[in-house]
Amino acid sequence: MPAPPDAERLARAALTYLAEPGDPALGALLAICEPAELLAAIQAGTLPAISEVGRAALSRALGRWQIRLPKLPAGAGIADAGRDGIRVICPGDAEWPTPLDQLGQARPYALWLRGNADLRFACARSVSVVGSRAATSYGGHIAGELAADLGERGWTVVSGGAYGIDAAAHRGALAAEGVTIAVLACGVDYPYPAGHADLFAAVAAQGLLASEWPPGARPARTRFLIRNRVIAAIACGTVIVEAGERSGALNTARHAAELGKPLMAVPGPVTSAQSAGCHRIIREWAATCVTRATEIIELLSPLSVPDALAPGGGADPDAWPQGQGRLSRDDGVLFRDDGVLSRDDGGIFRDGDRVSRDNLDADSARVLDALPTRGGAGTSTIAVEAGVDLDTVLRCLGELAGLGFIERCDRGWRLRRH
């Protein structure tokens, strides 16, 4: 595939400002439209009709993209975002990792990178090492040792830059002078968590920071789950070092299994709640039990896919841990496959009348994430930050208030003080 022309590159970069990654409507449109044509259509408010997306859903999608247009930099401004070693790559570029294409219409529109390593080359021999943020000393030690051993053997370590297992994996690879990639849920120039500013600088110097969000983008709770599919896709296999029953690392594991990638887990003490998720995916998802780097490399060299994880294999999706349910979209209606929370004709269904942030549908979670931690915000401000249309914001605000998450204030809406 030839490298994309400058117009396509600029348009794809612009789309990262307007749409959240993995937006099914935008993915379907990109399958039939050139990025520059699609960007012009969004700006004009005249999207082409497509059978994959219902008319009402397409209209809502246009609304949430257009509401961000005032924050879209001009062409020169987007180009200026590539400063301080930041660059953008697109499908068709020599540096684009082809495994990302396995995500289909959920493939990133573009990737923003900071660092000197070549992403495609680095991903050719790579392992995702992820786990709990609240890691134990055991988990942190194992993650660091595995990453260091993998780095010494020429394998790239991919993780998410979070506290706990992720940080231990990055530091282990850096200590071994290996290449490591941190896939972020914010702009590559936005150090989050702030305590990892030095770590991210070291990763950029020795590897890469990668993100689907443009420079300056702030993190949000839902964005961490969205980016996990990229962590799983770009690596040859995924290792879960330490994870509780509801750890976000299990979401990465799910993506790896769905993509047919080898899935591995490190066992922990049977008395440790932080290893319960690892034990479960070994027992019920047919993940391979690994304890050292040589076992990981043996499984991936040559790359082999366990039958249980291949399409049509023996891994039972119904056995996947609850609370990590996927969201599917049908004519603009969101459904969760874990039965905890679904939406049908505007109604909310609860499991035992318990509703937590993890149980919210995608739009409500984005709206909740958009509220400032201090003070309040008006509906228009919330809509821009969440990337949804005003009608959706009004609906979600009413539901979130009814569920006790937020309350009215002089400035509009604020998080409820418990």
Task: Give the structure's gist in a few sentences.
This protein is of the alpha/beta class. It has helices at residues 6-18, 24-30, 35-44, 55-66, 75-80, 119-124, 137-152, 165-175, 197-206, 221-234, 249-258, 276-284, 293-300, 362-370, 379-386, 390-402, and strands at residues 86-89, 111-115, 126-130, 156-159, 180-184, 208-211, 237-240, 263-265, 288-289, 327-330, 333-336, 343-344, 347-348, 406-409, 412-415. It has three domains: 6-86, no CATH class; 116-319, 3-Layer(aba) Sandwich (Rossmann fold); 327-415, Arc Repressor Mutant, subunit A.
Radius of gyration: 21 Å
Terminal-residue CA separation: 54 Å
Using the coordinates shown, work out and report the CATH topology of the largest domain. Rossmann fold
| Structure annotation, total helices | 16
Number of E strands: 15
Residue windows where pLDDT falls under 50 for at least 5 positions: 303-354
Count of domain modules: 3
Provide the residue-averaged pLDDT. Answer: 85
**Shape, per Cα inertia axes:** globular
Q: Biggest sheet, strands in spatial order? A: 1-2-6-5-4-3-7-8-9
Largest β-sheet summary: 9 strands, mixed
- Structural class call reads alpha/beta
Beta percentage is 5-15%
CATH secondary-structure class of the largest domain: Alpha Beta
Helix content: 25-40%
In CATH terms, what is the architecture of the largest domain? 3-Layer(aba) Sandwich
